[in-house]
Amino acid sequence: MNAVQYDKKLRLQLFIILCCSAIFVNIFGDYFTRFLLSEIIILSLFAMSLDFLAGRGGMISLGHAMFLGIGAYSTAILFINFNIDPFLCSLLAVVIGLIIGYLIGFIIVKTDGIFFIMITLALGEMFHSWAYTNDFLGGSDGISGILRPKLLGMDLNEPLFFSYYLLILLILVYAFLAAVTDSPLGRNLDAIRQNSGRVLSLGGSVKLYKSASFGISAAIASLAGSLYAQLNGFVSPEISHWTVSGEGLIMIIVGGIGSLSGAILGAVVVHIIQHEFSKLVDWWMLLMGGGFILVVLFLKEGLWGLILKFKNYIIENK
Amino acid sequence: MNIKFKVWFIIIISILLSSTLSKAENLKIGMLLPYSGAVAIIGEEITNALELAFEEVNYEISGRKLEIIRADTEYKPNIALKKARELIFSKKVDILAGTVSSSVALAVRDLVVSTKTPFIVANAGANQITRKKCSKYIIRVSFSNYQINAPMGPWLANYGIKTAFLLSANYAAGKEQMSAFKSTFEASGGKIVGEEYTPHRKTKDFGPYLGRIKSSGADAVYVFYAGGEAINFIKQAHSFGLADVMKITGAGWTTSPLFIPAQKKAALGFIGILNYVPSIETKENLEFQRAYKEKFGRIASEFAVQGYDTGKMIVEALKSLSGDTSNKELLAEELSKVSIIGPRGPLTIDPKTNNVIQNMYIFEVVNSANGPVLKILDKIEAVKDPGTGCSL
To answer: How far, in Å, CA of B13 to CA of B138, rounded?
Structure first.
């Protein structure tokens, strides 16, 4: 899996533009736009976790929605059955995601390419089927009645505050992932992605690095799942279906794999198009599919590539 | 003051004025149903029939137009919740109706209660919607899973069935239906000799299950399936010869009029129970079936009837309020007070739970000149859901 051209400055610029437009939308939007914004930010978190895994670690996971499910269900159970503070629930969900992700990663990162995809797909589907038939998890009906946290005297059930809360988390996660990408771990992952055999012969611990990155990615996906449960007040097994992982991959491919802020842009674009198309015609999925094929054929580096070209064009013509 | 400024001033003032002089707004009904994917047909049936009910009053109540706003739930709770939010906050609908899936209904439950939006459940059958999770803003005109299956226990026991085998898809609705039948069947002296739950929407080959059912030696198998699984199960049970050794019985959706054209003769002999069968011979039903066939060219299914009754109830409630929907609490109250005689017979809403009180029909699939039809064997009147744990 090739990642896009590396441009640290552009990555930050794009991220700042996206954040500013989010704040703008949040101030001037109505109740529903704020909800849509919250959903997009959560999907961006999920897309970033996939982007980190696929772009840096070179691992394509078709079962990543499992970690969304783990985060969402652990939040639901901790809150409903154990009455734990919602904010603490999210933190615990991250820890649970990290541990499960690392353990699973430790076992499966040995495999590569198509085998890795199949293993993650199988694990994801196992989780989905288990949640679907488990009575404790509410089976196919799911669990409802999950509340949002109250922080610093602010009730996050107010959508304006919740969007800002999510935005702050998005900035934190971005900063963390950007730091990891530029750290020795990120560089090692780049090396492993390009030639894992050589890294191994140089004495690098391929397995440790890969499973660590799988764990990090799982923890972020788990955070996204936990927030999604709090946004909807509800969790059902659909959240961990493999099509959700597929949608996440579509988002990062449209955005440009390995560009972090491109993943966010992809999430924004795909989600808004999906929302608008589904209002127009009943066969909107066909339009989405067609559009995706065009992106894959003609925009190999996604929207990120387009922006990069635009930037280079401006520099050349200065 | 120059002339340009005056012109602008007049334009701005007139825009401001025109926005305040609002005319009578439409009565908006938000339809929260699947319009794409495998169960889109059920969404279509419900909407079609609801439109039929609105056509009877020419889409108008006390001078206000009725407007239907469709929202495709894709059969997914999270998508449905988003659409429900859009309908309530952006489109400002007066009434929400729909949901085929129980998980979708439960997902939007907290939202409609907190925003005080009257929500008419037109299909979803999870018991808890009108039990633990009941609310005065949620009115169910369809059924509860318990309500449909419970009367079948004593009836089958009376019919001479002593032992039964349970078979259904492994998901919440399937399990609820089976446990409803099980509780009343065992209370009437029957015995359950075995149960199997198959992977939901993934089972294509029923062979292993059919073998187990046959060797169990039960008098009857009690099943619930819908869609492709219902078609496959009935066909495979037929070619397996299961009907030679035991009665095939179950919740009536298994041989719904939607699936019978695909099941054909394999469905013959099935005994089922449901809140509606097309062969009810009342004036209301004959008139409804005629109108539906004229417009859509096919026999209306039980889903269509639920949509039609939803439409009728909305019309009646709005009429009694003369089209005034400003007080949502009053609107929900009026909706729950409506009682009509629909194609399935008399309908009233149980004031204790807001679940519908309706007749149940026990039918057998028999042959006729036009292929298999559902022949009514028995009618059980005014069936209620116990509504355990509900306080309105």
So the answer is: 43
